[in-house]
Inverse folding.
């Protein structure tokens, strides 16, 4: 009877890689499901009546809620969210504190995208001085933003950053502020909006495709392992048979 003989090294490789490939596949499935739920929630809440600043303060689940506010932007503390690409052009998103008059709440409002092709000079933008009525919606990121390097602390304003953390800003400024970013809709003070809920080309179907790739690699690895084990066993069997013939 032939014994299964894959060898020690291939067995160790499979023991390490196979669980990892399967884990990555299920992780991609999980990410895809998260984004599917996120997109469904966004679509449902886009049709709901907008909240006031006071109602937003008391909301237990503010994600993607539409909001109507009246107040003023704080021109002295502007964030420039870097590495934002639209239509193949590099730029930034302008994010500023906004003080809602009715509720007294500070909110961090993303006014939209503007190009920044010439990096040796800062991007040019203006801030309305008068009180404005603005429409916006609450953006809750589907996951933490990956950063190669943390943004520098206490950098001068306007501050170029790669991720937005409202809580840190409110602590730095000593203000009571809303915990999430708001994205402004077209209207007074807005730049280019047209917000994607998830990154372009990274919808649920993309994660499903990645999951299929990881599972296919796991299956191929396991199939190769089985083939190697039976092939080595057959070679061993033939070698033993040849030696027996020579001795006889």
């Amino acid at each position: 009877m032939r014994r299964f003989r894959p060898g020690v090294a291939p067995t160790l490789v499979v023991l390490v890689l196979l669980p990892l490939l399967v884990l990555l596949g299920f992780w991609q499935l999980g990410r895809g499901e998260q984004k599917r739920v996120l997109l469904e929630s966004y679509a449902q809440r886009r049709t709901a009546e907008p909240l006031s600043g006071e109602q937003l303060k008391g909301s237990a689940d503010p994600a993607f809620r539409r909001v109507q506010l009246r107040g003023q932007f704080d021109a002295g503390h502007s964030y420039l969210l870097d590495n934002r690409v639209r239509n193949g052009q590099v730029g930034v998103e302008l994010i500023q504190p906004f003080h809602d008059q009715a509720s007294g709440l500070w909110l961090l409002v993303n006014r939209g995208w503007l190009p920044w092709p010439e990096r040796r000079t800062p991007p040019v933008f203006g801030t309305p001085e008068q009180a404005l009525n603005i429409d916006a919606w609450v953006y809750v990121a589907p996951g933490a933003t990956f950063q190669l390097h943390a943004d520098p602390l206490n950098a001068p304003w306007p501050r170029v950053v790669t991720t937005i953390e409202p809580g840190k800003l409110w602590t730095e400024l000593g203000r009571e502020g809303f915990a999430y970013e708001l994205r402004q809709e077209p209207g007074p003070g807005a730049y280019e909006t047209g917000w994607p809920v998830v990154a372009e080309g990274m919808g649920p179907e993309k994660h499903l495709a990645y999951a299929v790739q990881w599972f296919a690699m796991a299956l191929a690895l396991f199939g190769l392992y089985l083939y190697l084990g039976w092939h080595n066993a057959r070679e061993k069997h033939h070698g033993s048979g040849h030696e027996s013939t020579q001795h006889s």
